[in-house]
Predict the structure of CAZy families GT2 protein.
Amino acid sequence: KDLYEVYLIVEDKDDLDHKTGLGPRLWIFDKGCGQSRVRPTKGGALDEAIKALRPWESYEAVVVFDADDWVTDNFLAEMDRLYKEGKAVGVGRRIYPNRGTDVLAGCGALISMGQANIMAFGLTPYGQTVVTGTGYFVRSSLLERFRGYPWQGLTEDMMLTNYCHAVGIPMGLSLDALV
């Protein structure tokens, strides 16, 4: 049995990332071809994909990262380590080069996520972190609880973070898994 499968969510067939998915062991989820396009957000597309794929039947976790970003070669191993430590959600460390084409946006994301993680580690009793939409995993059992991905806003990563903080779901941060 394969250890992983890769699914790519794109805006539509004109999306430049669509060509990335045209290869072996890659499947494409096209937001424009779904049953409904009521929520044309990453969270809405994730919900549609999770409901269709039902990962809790075959996989222990779902890893999400942006197709136009890169992750270090140890990213999946680091997410697996956090999973084995019992974390329900794990996130890699956000770095600048992924947004190098837009310096202001890249620096803003780096500063805000870094500050949020520092505040979270210093202020919560759980040692929680802040999920960034660029690279994280979610246990399939958590997705099964909702039979989908209920955090469907434009900032689905922050919605997931807030939910985990509110109900005490253990989250982990890998400083070695660069995203």
In short: The CA atoms of residues 3 and 59 lie 9 Å apart. Residues 33-38, 98-104, 123-127 have pLDDT under 50 and may be disordered.
